[in-house]
Amino acid sequence: MPIDPSRLPAAPALVRARRPDGTPQLALWRDARLTALGGTLDELASLSRAQLETALRAAGRDELDPAGLDLLAPAETQEIWAAGVTYRRSREARMEESTQKDIYAQVYEADRPELFFKAPGWRAVPPDGAVGIRSDSRWDVPEPELAVLSNAHGEVIAYTVGNDMSSRSIEGENPLYLPQAKVYDRSCALGPGAVLAWEVDPTHAWMRLEIHREGAVLYRGEASLADLVRTPRALTEVLHGALTLPAGAWLLTGTSIVPEAAYTARDGDEVVIEIDGIGRLHNRVTTVPVSAAQALPVSP
């Protein structure tokens, strides 16, 4: 789908797009203009934050026509990680779904946060793409989150909107099933662009979630990022603590907007997530088939 400038962030951002010939194009969105950047997001994320700021000040001379480009997710080889139980509401939601409730109360108050791998960058779903629910899951939800891009040096360089699709029924059976509940095709969406961290401060921004079904608003919720119990910088420091990340990484910082227990996502639902100053992410829901829907019984 061609890029609609009205749906890009107001603040300067890095944007990934696809040209008509299928090749990717990295661009700078600034002052309502989209201009070509040489190189890749991986290369920019290998620079220090100071080097990146300097490089971008001198960039952006060759203007691009948004109508001739398709918007991609702002990720290349970056790993995408996620943090859990970073808001009081997420702790409550995890306890509601789980048969082992105490572990979520403990991690909420612990010095060490919960971090888990979500997706490789190439698997990220772009704006207007289809996010997935597993065919072997009974209870599924989108989770709206602030996503933070850190560079190879562990410095925060950008923000975007993230959708952490999750199976609450699978995770609720046993916390050890979290990778299956969280990591599968189409389980992560990012976009619209990577808003430069020195241009915005999302600390007190509001995040909103709307779910539409058959043309009607089925759910609407909002929350303040000020309610995060851990700062994005603190979470990023833990992520980089024992990992080498040559192209940096995206980190989803958790959610505090959780639809009521009666809701489960289904094919055709439209999910709209918006964060003040960061952007708006729209996706539709589709079912991801699971070839081995039931675990084999253990042999005696």
Report on the architecture of this protein:
The structure is a single chain. With 300 residues, the protein is of the alpha+beta class. It has 2 domains: 5-71, no CATH class; 79-288, Fumarylacetoacetase-like, C-terminal domain (Fumarylacetoacetate hydrolase, domain 2). It has helices spanning 41-45, 49-57, 88-97, 102-109, 168-173, 178-182, 232-240; strands at residues 13-18, 24-30, 33-36, 70-71, 79-84, 114-120, 130-134, 140-141, 144-150, 156-164, 166-167, 188-196, 206-213, 216-224, 249-252, 270-275, 279-288. The strands form 3 sheets. Strands 1, 2, 3, 4, 5, 6, 9, 10, 12 and 15 form a 10-stranded mixed β-sheet that branches. Strands 7-17-16-13-14 form a 5-stranded mixed β-sheet, with no helix packed on it. The chain has a two-stranded antiparallel ribbon with strand order 8-11. α3 runs antiparallel to α4 (102-109).
Topology overview:
Layout: E1 13-18, E2 24-30, E3 33-36, H1 41-45, H2 49-57, E4 70-71, E5 79-84, H3 88-97, H4 102-109, E6 114-120, E7 130-134, E8 140-141, E9 144-150, E10 156-164, E11 166-167, H5 168-173, H6 178-182, E12 188-196, E13 206-213, E14 216-224, H7 232-240, E15 249-252, E16 270-275, E17 279-288
Parallel strand pairs: 5-15, 7-17
Antiparallel strand pairs: 1-2, 1-4, 1-12, 2-3, 5-6, 8-11, 9-10, 9-15, 10-12, 13-14, 13-16, 16-17
Helix pairs in contact: 3-4
